[in-house]
Known about the structure:
In chain A, 30% of the residues lie in helices and 22% in strands. Chain A contains eleven helices and twelve strands. Chain A has helices spanning 30-43, 71-78, 96-109, 154-164, 169-188, 231-235, 267-272, 298-309, 326-336, 349-352, 359-374, and strands at 8-15, 19-20, 55-59, 87-90, 115-123, 199-206, 212-219, 256-266, 279-288, 316-321, 378-385, 389-397. In chain A, strands 1, 2, 3, 4, 5, 8, 9, 10, 11 and 12 form a ten-stranded mixed sheet that branches. A two-stranded antiparallel ribbon of chain A has the order 6-7. In chain A, strand 3, helix 2 and strand 4 (87-90) form a beta-alpha-beta unit. Chain B is α/β, with parallel strands linked by helices and 792 residues long. In chain B, 44% of the residues lie in helices and 14% in strands. Chain B is built from 29 helices and 23 strands. Chain B has an eight-stranded mixed sheet. Chain B has a seven-stranded mixed sheet with strand order 15-16-17-18-19-20-21. In chain B, strands 9-10-11 form a three-stranded antiparallel sheet. In chain B, helix 20 (548-567) runs antiparallel to helix 28, helix 23 (637-649) packs antiparallel against helix 27 (730-743) and helix 27 (730-743) packs antiparallel against helix 28 (756-771). Chain B is globular, with a radius of gyration of 29 Å. Chain B starts with 8 loop residues before the first strand and ends in a 6-residue tail after the last helix. Chains A and B meet through loops of A and helix 26 of B.
Amino acid sequence: MSRQVQEAYIVAATRLPTAKRNGMFRTTRPDSMLAHVLASVVAQVPQIDPGLIGDVIVGCAMPEGEQGMNVARIGLLLAGLPDTVPGITINRFCSSGLQAVADAAARIRLGEADVMIAAGTESMSVMPNMMGNKVSLNPAIFAKEENLGIAYGMGLTAEKVAQQWKVSREDQDAFAVASHRKAVAAIAAGHFRAEISPYATRSQMPGEQGTVRIVERLCENDEGPRADASVEGLAKLKPVFAARGSVTAGNASQMSDGAAAVMLVSEKILKQFNLQPLARFAGFSVAGVPAEIMGIGPVKAIPKVLAQAGVRQDDLDWIELNEAFAAQALAVVRDLGLDPEKVNPQGGAIALGHPLGATGAIRTATLLHGMKRTGGKWGMVSMCIGTGMGAAGLFEVL
Amino acid sequence: MSSLIVRKAAVLGAGVMGAQIAAHLANADVPVVLFDLAAKEGDPNAIVRKAIDGLKKQSPAPLMSKDRAQYIDAANYDQHLPLLGECDLVIEAIAEKMEWKEDLYRKIAPHLKPGAIVASNTSGLSINHLAQHLPAALRPDFCGVHFFNPPRYMSLVEIIATTDSDGAMLDRLETWLTTRLGKGVVRAKDTPNFVANRVGVFSMLAVMFHTTRLGLGCDEVDALTGPKIGRPKSATFRTADVVGLDTLDHVVKTMRDTLPGDPWHSHFNSPQWLLGLIGKGALGQKTKAGIFTKVGKDIHVFDPAAGDYRPSTGIVAPEVADILKIKHPAERLNALRAHAHPQAQLLWCSFRDVFHYCAYHLADIADNARDVDFAMRWGFGWNQGPFETWQAAGWKAVAEAIKEDIAAGKTMSAAPLPAWVFTREGVHEAAGSWSAAAQTLKPRSDLPVYRRQRYPERVLGEAADAAGTTVWENEGVRLWTHPQDAGIAIVSVRSKMHALGAAVVDGLLTAVAKAEAEFDGLVLWHEAPFAVGANLQEVLEACQAGRFDELEAMVAKFQRASMAFKHAQIPTVAAVQGMALGGGCEFAMHASHRVLALESYIGLVEAGVGLIPAGGGCKEFVLNAAEIAKRQTGGEPFNAIQSAFQTIAYAKTSGSGQEARDLGFAKASDDLVFHPGELLHVALCRARALAEAGYRPPLRARNVAVAGRNGVATLEMMLVNLKEGGFISAHDYRVGRAAAVALCGGEVETGTLVDDEWLLQVERKEFVALLKTAETQARIQHTLETGKPLRN
């Protein structure tokens, strides 16, 4: 059982606006995006000397190429943090950013650290495909029928979930349109403003007479949500992953670039610097499911963390449930009987995008700033994970 | 004669023709500036940009590969006229309004580069009249160049001189259009609609007239006037739909307005029912309804009598179909004339009136009868022009028959046939073709460019070209030499569609051996198609008899033949045009060098019949991938193998010679030839050049790093997803996996070093294993029976 010695509190959480793949961060490197959110989160708590940071844990689902080489350490040095601050990159695919928050909290709860940063960064623009720079599968996967699920593309797993949980194409499309509608409304109302650290991109382009021209652009808003999304429009899209399937580009999450960072501290630090926390970290769980229905993972993870914390599902006020696919998100909502009104009130990954390893940290920032605005006590971030897992993090908003 | 140098060209007008002409110039490595009006709001080049984007989506593709579009710059008349100062050739292709053209010519004149050729693509307006709107100094460099739609694919370009056009300029232009753009040039006189449209549109009017007169349906007339008489599938009325009924009516109106003295003038009207369709906005393909329309999956045809559409049937009466099967042209035409069936009468009367029309007008519209015949072949896709059809059917007898019909008042015009018709036995003979204007036989053009065509298209009655000297032959191939270079042997396949059966493979092996011993090089050349692949009938028979050892030996021999091409001691050059599929593609890949016609459709399509390439095709991709990997830091063969797998598993076929390079069937250093007639000339020159450069064959490949079993597994992931997603069948999976194994060099450890013999063994083993499956045998049988692939 828990050997917790102290509580962990979140005192700051911020993120970049999320860009479409090959969109506004087309020329922005993932380590630069990370450096920006790390510098921003540190700046939001000026009372704390950055030298106190025990570790920077960064989630990244494809930690290679431009985001390889322990991107955490590179990002924190580029952010101007003291070289005494260490950094580690972790990977559990789509839950990496949430895992970073959980791991950072765990270090504080065990008394090993008093100030931690958890973050996530992912540029899907720099990845040639969904499987990284070099794809290579183990022949053993194909030797046994039961391992074939490892080889399934994520879209195909969503089709399997749609079949097994009987989620219709119409419901998926309606869910996707609702996601866009909620996100567009939230942007218009300025609901994301508190959590976003705007970023000025600088691109070096060929200019006149052999000179390099700098193109600057201030990026303040998420790029993915579409005001003109409609059920009629989505209905025209062809299924991508199965000939007679229901999962389309329109009812799946968007491929994106993004980053976020969260600062966690112990109660001691909270008191020492008289900080007002956003929330208390209340628990985390991961659980496994068959790889071929990976999208259903939260069904196992959510009850598990609620049981650990002794919180009833009905007590949840806000649930950020990652919309990898409308099919799996709807299956999770229905299977667990989650209150649809409380799930993704400002839209989800179908509209806002899903920069894999960054998503957990990004949605933590959304949850905590959102609940700060609307009130409520218990908030949750949950997602499904490739090859068959689910993760859930529980936050008590203070 | 000095050459025409076109470093850059401009096309004025980004409509259907202008944009496609620009595309074809870009295909031929000529950068183009494409002009149109400035858009009223937004991006001033929006109109042109939209046209350029459209080029990437059109079918058939105007561009030989999509990335060619980048060589077409968008421009507008308001801002960019000074760009004309860089252009050596300016082709005007704006709407057919004399005032617009006049206005444009005035605008561009001050900006033209001195010495630039300016040419109009007008299809009907007077070139001499247009020339008057250019300053006198520019007129020697002005003429008409009339392309046909779609310009990449239709061979014909009519060059129309004005009274001021400089003869040397016209020769340079004709040379350039022929060899650089690959076109068939006909010199037309400056008469309304020039040659091809004048005859072609009259032919359509004649067919329409007789259709109405005889009360036939448009569907049955199309069934009669298509491939059954050597014309395109779109025949008469479907062609009208494709052209656009409004456009057709516009052309007919031009004839009505500009040819008041034509004895057929009273027929220069679209039928009332057709005008009715135009009135209703049923303009043909572009409005999805015209003479034909689609109702669900069915085609319906307009019935003028009922004033409505009915299901299209298009049945040719059996007795008429029997007549059309008669081989002898004279007997066939006589039988049509003699038969009372309205379908037979339609054909006879249409032929007769077109012959009548062409003979009457030959003196005015064309230099000679050959030009008319080629114009109809190249511009309208007829297998034979009107004069050669007439001559084949017996010149004198047909002339008499026409005369009788004129006298009987049956013809569309009472104008008599010109006197020369009755003094001759035909219009084409060895010495040349008849010029009605000059009353003499005219030989072919002596422009040097035509010497590049070793076997040019000939009209019926012309002298045949020398067949060359046979060195050796068997049932499958002929090994011979052409006087152009008697030191280079040529091997030509003789089988139907140039399928590669046992006799062909034996023949090729012998041909290579003989060429090595007695010649400096070997060219593999014959008319299109290059080859449609292995002889599946032979393969299936062996399968059904269970002779799999024999099949394996057959495959091994096939591999020996391709390896013989690759490792011969002399250069081997494959001259490819048309389809080069399966084994044909593999032989081409193994040659030392390839000379590709622009229209080369190359692919390893074995997956369609449940097989994988096993004539060394997979091996070549493995070697290529290993070479690419060697040149890259930390390179791995798998990267290139992945795209090769897609190419083979999806049986991708190139849509052009350039795409064949892009897909890896050919190399960047191979030649791309735009005029198919020049292929043999270029291949012989290339073989000679390789020989003179001290040709050494490549060594057998050793130490080839392969993607191995991790590669197979990674490709299998793709197959698992396709199968689970319901996109492919279990047998598709099996075929795909076999391709993966062959392309990854077998199920060995990743990075294993192997030699080419191992790679050949792997692909052969996988091939034979597939042949043993019932599904693959069923696919082969189905394809042999129906010509279509079976999905099982």
